[in-house]
Every structure is written in structure tokens, then in C-alpha cells.
Protein 1
Amino acid sequence: MNNQSQPFNNIQDKECCPKFKAEKWDKQTIRWDNKKFIKDTIPELFHIPFPSMISKKITRMWKAVEQAGASAPNKEDTLILFRDPTPFKGEIYIAVEKDVPAENNVVISGNFVSRVFDGGYNAIPKFVKIIDGYLAETGKKAKDYYVHYAYCPKCAKKFGHNYMILFAKI
């Protein structure tokens, strides 16, 4: 596997995550019509994922994406989404350009409003309240939420920011 094209690389890779452009994602309305993803689940304990499990799952999934030639043409356009449907199970979605053999290929459709935040995983409930307030100003209400982390932990430290995009399905 070529580490230069991985969204989350090993600690020695100095060019790991691309520099995040918040303006591209903040306060945007996005329409996805059958946007392709592969999906896997991870165990959680009261909505807290096990970090080592996240790394293992993403590495395995990304290897399958690369082997299928299904990654986005630009590394900056790679979306890895997390959804937290229950206190004991999380979901990971990696956007793909085409179906990936032997993976759980799914599509996501709908209208989404995105907001960019800078903070840790534990701040997500606060960020959900902020996006809910933002939606309420226009008479909208979220049906579901997905989170994309712009940087792996190493790059968040390197860049001094822990950006995330919160996608609210409306």
C-alpha cells in the first residue's frame, strides 16, 4: 500500500493529511444523490469509540478502496464520515468513486447543511447544539448527523487545529 495516498498515514509520513480549507465546507448546503460510500461498524462504550479500532478499520477499508481504484481523484476530496447511531455502535463511511469488491457498498442521499468546528471529540454535543440553532434560524431541523475529521490526531497536533465538518441531514 502506498502511504502517500492514504488519508491517515503512519507517524513517519510528513505529508499525511492535506491542509484543510474550512471555507469550502462551512455553512454550505449540499445535495447528495446516491453518493457512494463503503461502510463498516466499530464498537463503542457509551458513544466513545476505541481509538485503536478506528485506526484498524480505516486502514483496512482504505486498502480495499485503493486496491479497487475507487478513491477520490484529489486527496482533499476524501470524505471519511462517522455516525453514532447507538451508545455501543459507531459507523465509518469512506466516500468512493465506484463500488469496492467485498465491502459493504452503500449510498447516502439527501440534503445536508455543513458547519466546520475546531475542537475535540468530546465537544461534539456542543457543536450539535450550535448547528441545530443555525438550522432553526431558517426553520430547518436535523434528522441525522455525520462527522468528518479533517486531520488525523498527528496532523491535528502538527497544524494546531482539530477541524471537523458536522453534516446535518435535513
Note: The longest helix spans residues 51-68.
Protein 2
Amino acid sequence: MKKRVSFNSLIQSNKPVLVDFTAQWCGPCRAMGPILQEVASDLGDKASIVKVDVDKNPELASQLGVMGVPTFILYKKGKAHWRHSGMQSAKALKEVIEQAIAS
């Protein structure tokens, strides 16, 4: 069973945290699954990827202005560094995360 952690404590990490706002009914969200697994496996412990189901967390999605899924927000030390709605390639995600690692 996964330990529940507050969103704010999660994004305070010194390493980048890519938050994937998703929904079970969303086809593009499901298609992103293997892409995110590839990114996670390539980056190892240099970054974290977290999925947030907008249907189970509507307040958080609303607070952050997530209007569509998939939406990705990259955090480092509690600050949003990048945001994108829609599908992304593994290459594009890795580039964005690697820039955050280097900063």
C-alpha cells in the first residue's frame, strides 16, 4: 500500500517532481503510461514522476488550474518550472526534467 503524502510536501523535493494530472477515462493519458515509464527508468532516482487523478483530486486540479488531461507540471523545491497540457514525447519530457536537474 502506498503511503499518502501531502501534495505540498511532495513538491518541496530538491530533485524535480513531474506531476501527471490524469484520468482513467482519458485515452491520451493511458497512452502516456509507457512513455512515463520510459522516462522514469531512464532518469532513475534523479527525478520523481507522480500521477494525480483529477477525478479523485478535483480540488487540487482546480487550485492549480488544470482544465484538461493530461496536464504535466514540473516542480523543483516547491516551484513550478514548466507546464504542458497534452501528450509529450519521452525525449521532450527528459529534456525538460534534465534542465531542471541542472538548474
Note: The CA atoms of residues 17 and 75 lie 5 Å apart.
